[in-house]
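### Sample
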Amino acid sequence: MRAADVQAAIENLARADGASPPLINHVCLTCVQSVGAVGVCTSVRGPTGLYEPLCAVGPAGEALAELQVTVGEGPGWETVDGDRPVLIRDLDAVSAQRRWPLFAAAAAGLGTATVFAFPLLVGVVAVGALEIYWARRPLSNTAFADGLLFADAALLTLMTGITPDGDGADPADDGFRAGGPGDPFLDRWPQVHQAAGMVSVQLQVEPAEAYARLRAHAYANDQSLREVARRVVERTLTFSPDRDSE
């Protein structure tokens, strides 16, 4: 696979979708189809410096993205934090379980065996990550090279993103046009931000800590982060310094 072939495939999908220029979901969809993955996720370093998913496609993509956000560990987090690729060929291996005690076993339970995560580098700093998950191992000899090509395409798409007013946008900006109108994945995350803001006020803490409290509540109660956020916004769940109340 060549860079020109990757970009052409992305642009063809975008044109068929009536979008110009391509959006990040077109990169993810083309990637999952081209490399035979069960999930492809892209993320950015959000305003608080934390892993923030932008797009997730494939049979396991959305579940894997939300799992990482909830447990606070995984290949996307590590790639964004470390500014380097993370290549795990066996999520069932003891080394993977030790590396990510909460994420690895749950990801394997979702039918994934291998993950390659590539940093989206601006200079030497990762502004985001592209994660590719496969259900099988070993992979083809071109898996790493193909992943690099799609990571380059993802970065190009993010850096040339267009906001509704036509201006270029920062990938971490809430106005960044990552997916098309009504993108089913992206549309769910503003409520998480709103909930984090509400919890920040309730607890009188910084947004990053409020976000961590939301994640901890979701994990402890075996709920999705989006479900917890919805309940906070609907005011059926509030947080206090001593305990969380229904």
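Residues 162-178 have pLDDT under 50 and may be disordered. This sample (ANTAR domain-containing protein) is used throughout the tutorial notebook.
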